[in-house]
Amino acid sequence: MKSAYQRSLAFYLLLLPLTIFPSAPRQRHDERPRLIVLVVIDQLREEYLLRFEPFFGDGGFRRLLAHGAVFTNCQYEQAPTVTAPGHATIATGTTPTIHGIINNEWYDRETGQVVTSVSDPSRRLVGTASGRASSPHRLLGTTLADELRLSTNFRSKVIALSYKDRSAILLGGKLANLALWFDETSGSFITSDYYASALPEWATRFNAARPADRYFGARWEKAFPEAAYALAASDDRPEETPLPGGGRTFPHHLTGGLAQPGPAFYTAFTFTPFANEVLVELAKRTIEGEQLGRDESPDLLAISFSTNDLVGHYFGPDSQEVADLTLRTDRALASLLAYLDSRLGSEYVLALTADHGVAPIPEYVARLRLGGRRIPPTTVRQAIEEALSARFGEGPWIESKALPLLSSGFVYLDREAIARKHLDIAEVERIAAEAALKIPGIARAYTRTHLLVGHPHGEAIGRRVAASFHPLRSPDVTLVSEPFAFISGSRTGTTHGSPYSYDAHVPLILFGRWIAPGIYRHACTPADLAPTLAALLRIEFPAGATGRILQEALRPPTSQTVSPQPLRKTRQR
Question: Any idea which fold 373-487 has?
Answer without folding.
Answer: Gyrase A; domain 2 (3.30.1360)
